[in-house]
Amino acid sequence: MVASVQSSGSAGAAQAAATISQAADTQDRFLKLLVTQMKNQDPLNPLDNAQVTSQMAQLSTVSGIDKLNATVQALSDSMSAAQSLQAASMIGHAALVPGSQMNMAGGKSDAALELAQPADKVAVTITDAEGNVVRTLQLGAQDSGTIGFQWDGKDDTGTAVADGTYKYSASAELSGKKSTPTTLSYGLVESVLLTSAGPMLNMGSLGDVGLDAVRQIL
């Protein structure tokens, strides 16, 4: 995977170099044409100085834009390669990303919520694979931001549930107005996919997630 990232970076550098070389060739051809035109101009009707100056200024502008584009492309390729290496280093680590899944193991399961604004009260509803409500957690008043919470693996009657995957949803209320917090799940980064949109983290049952969606890395 690292080799692929290095290859991508090398290809970007080569493309930028090719663009600069092409711009230099265009400028060289223009100057040769201009010199030839001046050598063979009619002495009685010479080239207008203002016209020559204008043409050279236009060439300089175009050349500058080409070089700027090549530089920006090289920077973009470099950033993409750095992001890919960063993503590759996350393989095998747990990450907190948007999701509504809770994995119960050994009588404990962790998850989190993201509140856009403070809330007077926050409630979490946990359901099983058939959609039956297993447990309702009251988290009380919370400030805005990311809020972590833990489920002790018991249902509403206090009976321990079986290990496995559960779903959950959340609701919040502030001054009588209800809102829906963003649910966040912990998952293991299994691999990294290099796409045209940037590196994507393969989070198993949580799906593919972009780097910008990661809230926490463990």
Shape: elongated
Straight-line N-to-C gap: 22 Å
Number of domains: 2
Largest sheet: 5 strands, antiparallel
Helix count, per DSSP?
2
Question: Which terms would index this structure?
Answer:
single chain, 218 residues, alpha+beta, Immunoglobulin-like, five-stranded antiparallel β-sheet, 2 helices, 13 strands, disordered N terminus
Characterization of the model:
This protein is an alpha+beta fold and 218 residues long. The chain has 2 domains: 2-88; 94-217, Sandwich (Immunoglobulin-like). 36% of the residues lie in helices and 36% in strands. The protein contains 2 helices and 13 strands. The strands form 3 sheets. It has a 5-stranded antiparallel β-sheet, with no helix packed on it. The radius of gyration is 30 Å and the shape is elongated.
